Each structure stands twice: as C-alpha cells, then as structure tokens.
From TrEMBL:
This is ATP-binding cassette domain-containing protein. SUPFAM superfamilies: P-loop containing nucleoside triphosphate hydrolases (SSF52540). One of its GO terms (molecular function) is ATP hydrolysis activity. Keywords: ATP-binding, Nucleotide-binding, Transport. It comes from Flavobacterium pygoscelis. InterPro entries: AAA+_ATPase, ABC_transporter-like_ATP-bd, ABC_transporter-like_CS, P-loop_NTPase. Residues 21-258 form the ABC transporter domain. The keyword ATP-binding applies. It comes from the Bacteria.
Amino acid sequence: MEDEIKKRNIIQKSEADVPVIEIKNLHKSFGTNEVLKGVNLTVNKGENLVILGKSGSGKSITIKCIVGLMRIDEGEINVFGTDITKLHIAELNGIRVRIGFLFQNAALYDSMSVRDNLGFTLKRHAKDLSAEEVESQIKEILDSVGLSEAIDKMPSELSGGMRKRIGLARTLILKPEIILYDEPTTGLDTITSREISELIIEIQKKYKTTSIIITHDMPCAKLTGNRLMVLKEGVMHAEGTYEELEKSEDEWVRSFFL
C-alpha cells in the first residue's frame, strides 16, 4: 500500500508542468467576514490536489468560485488558461461543461430514476444524440462506477455510497476534463469511504482527469492526493505530499494527521 501511494505522488513531468487551474490572490468576503484572504494555488494536468482545512475555512467556497457559482471580490481564476472572472455567462458555460462538480449530497433528482437522472444531464448538453446512443452512454458510465444493476432504481432506494457513485456517474457522463469533489466520503462508513476513494483513483487513470478534492477524511486524502494543500485563516498555509506534511515541523499542520 505504501509503495502504491508513493508511486501516485510521482506525476509524469510532461503532465505536471501544464497548469489546468491557477488561482491568484483570491479574496472572498460575506459581509464583514473575510473568508478567503489571498488564496494562491495551481493544479497541474492529470493531478489530484487535496485541500485540507478546518470547518468554515473556505475550502468549498474556493471550488465554487472555480466554476463561477460564487463571484469573487478580488483576484484571478485561470481555468484552461482563461480568467473565468472576466467571462460573460455564455463563455463561462462553455468552460463549465468541461468541469464536473460532485456535491456533498450527490444532488440527484429524487423524482427521477437513475437512468433518467443520467439521461437528463446528457441530453441537456448533447441534444443530437439518438435514444440508443443516450442509453449506451448511460450503461457505459454506470459500469464505470460499478452500478450497472441500479439503472432502474430511484434515489430513495440507494444507499449513501450508491448515491455518491451515481452522483459521480452523472458528473462523468459529460466526460469532464476537471472534476471538483466536495467531501466525497462524508457520511459514509470506513469501507464505503475507501471504495469511493479507490473509484476516484480509477477515474483519474481511466479518464485522465485533473481534480481538486475537498475532504476531512485523511485516509481519503492519503489514498487519492498526489499533492495536498492546507488552508488556514484564508490563505494556503502549507503544501506537499501526504508524507511530507505528516512530518511537518508545523504543529498545526501535523494536527490533521493525528
């Protein structure tokens, strides 16, 4: 296991030197509460970047800003080399379709079956597909997350882990180049959390995705992250591999690993 994790921390230089996301001096306040106070980060092509931080530190806000779900107060957010903060909505939507976002609760439509949840998403963005092509892509993506048998189930019939997988399938069906994971293992038992973490790795390898993973789950961070960053008091306080940060001389950073 340790050898596998070490191997995952070695990104091919041809991929790692190509930034897909670059955030510069990001500020975001809510009234008098300044949450982000100059966040800087870069995510390289093919990399899984894990962001750690205490509750309320602004981790989820950071990734919501990346897809334009929140307007920033100051700074730059470059995605695929374009500063999205300067885009009109039509241009922003052109970037968004290349980004998948897995919400904490999977955000499935409760009144739709698994097939309809996936089909609705696909048909919104690929109107020229035939019914047969839609069905084929739904089955392919369900197979990728190991839930082919759930195609006719309703969300209420799914366990928490299954809902996460279907939420991920709905994200994957548009074949995004970037995936933003917001607490992908929250509320899951230890075994299911590990299964979701392993699925994140499989997706990175199979689809060549670039990802940011927000998590409090340190086993998930250890397994999935090529690199970790720690958010403290509105700025990125530390970064490195899991092993480097675990041995940090900074007592606050080490507290995450206890």
